[in-house]
Amino acid sequence: MATLLPMEQAGENARAPVEIEVPAGTAWPLVLAFGFTLMFAGLLTSASVTVLGVVLAAAGCVGWFHEVFPREHEETVPVTFEVQRITTERRVVERVPVAPDLVRAWLPLETYPISAGIKGGLAGGVAMTVLACTYGLFEAGSIWYPINLLAATVYAESLKLGPAQLNSFHSDSFAIAVLLHGIGSIFVGLLYGAMLPMFARRPVVLGGLIAPVLWSGLLYSIMELLNPLLASRINWIWFMGSQIAFGIVAGIVVLRQARVSTRENLPFVVRAGIEAPGTIPPRAGREKRS
Questions:
Q1: Is residue 272 predicted with pLDDT exceeding 50?
Q2: Is 194 helix (H, G, I), strand (E, B) or coil?
Q3: Rounded to whole angstroms, how far apart are CA atoms 251 and 202?
Q4: Residue predicted with more confidence, 269 or 208
Q5: Structural contact between residues 227 and 187, judged by C-beta atoms closer than 8 angstroms
Q6: Coil, helix or strand for 97?
Q7: Is the peptide bond before 78 cis (omega within 30 degrees of 0)?
Q8: Are 117 and 190 in contact (CB under 8 A)?
Q9: Could you tell me whether strands 74-78 and 260-261 are parallel, antiparallel, or unpaired per DSSP bridges?
């Protein structure tokens, strides 16, 4: 394979190569990657998808190996030498100004307190509960129907309830459902409080619409493992609607809370020497001595 000489030597050496050989383009790596994707996708769908993935992966491996063995497939590319000259009309060097209050850029500079995430999570949990109970009234004529289904996630006794018993009140299932829903709402609310300052534009749309849709898609793939009873009776349209209601209400409540400065910008952290060296402005005494 020919080698490309440095630019300085190419201008002096008349015998410098004008063409180089590079590996030829091939689509076999894409076939191999697609085959592996289908192999693992078949674990969640059907065995036929896995078989197709194995066939494509094997074909991709064989085709890719043939690009190298027994002889490398290469193509010739012409070489064009260009000398680039960088010029400027500026007479002075511009320097980036350093903020007087901050010795280091921390992003985000402000965030929401923990209490904001808790309030948003609890408010979103209430909105989600209202929609879930409304669905229970339309579907089974009882607000206890979705509550008993939720309790079946960790409570084995709820799995033994018949169709008629799912519509009645059970104190143990009710307590477990409230505990699960409360803990989950608080944790998701805290996550929203940490994520929303990172979204400069329309944070409620990103945190209240896009995130619930992605979360619903994840639960759709693992619901059979988490809660078989809920997976057999769930209405995904109502479920996604309740998730979106949670996200919008929680996002609005969090955005209405006052922001606080991040811990990294507190004075004691600056004095601890965590700031980046070279960005601290010189003291007056140093300027006089220099």
A1: no
A2: helix
A3: 10
A4: 208
A5: no
A6: coil
A7: no
A8: yes
A9: unpaired
One-letter identity of residue 128? M
CB atoms within 10 A of CB 71: 8
Where does the pLDDT of residue 33 fall: very low under 50, low under 70, confident under 90, or very high at 90 and above?
Answer: very high
- Quote the distance between the C-alpha of residue 179 and its chain's center: 27
Give residue 191's identity as a one-letter amino acid code. L
Q: Which residue has the tokens 């989600």?
A: 128
Q: Where are the alpha helices (DSSP H) in 21-70?
A: 28-41, 47-66
Asked whether the beta carbons of 238 and 248 are under 8 A apart, the reply is: no
CA–CA dist 104, 237 (Å, integer)? 47
Assigned token pair, 69: 């063995």
| Angle at 121 (CA atoms; ends 232, 264), nearest 5 degrees | 130
Gyration radius from the chain CA atoms: 31
* pLDDT reported for residue 102: 53
- Distance separating alpha carbons of residues 170 and 174, to the nearest angstrom: 6
23-35 as b/e: b if 16+ CB within 10 A: eeeeebeebbeeb
In angstroms, the CA 241 to CA 234 distance is 12
Cα 123 off chain centre by: 24
Q: Which two tokens stand for residue 119?
A: 């309030």
Tell how far CA 196 is from the center of its chain. Answer: 13
Contact of 63 with 26, CB cutoff 8 Å: yes
pTM, entire model: 0.51
Gap between the Cα atoms of 217 and 276, Å rounded = 42
Q: Residue 252: phi, psi to the nearest 5? A: -65, -45
Going by the DSSP 8-state scheme, the letter that residue 22 receives in this structure is: E
Please identify which residue in the block is written with the tokens 């879930």: 132
- Name residue 22's beta-bridge partners: 75
Give dist(CA 149, CA 229) in Å, integer.
7
- Quote the tokens at residue 103: 């010795």
* Cis bond before residue 108 (omega within 30° of 0): yes
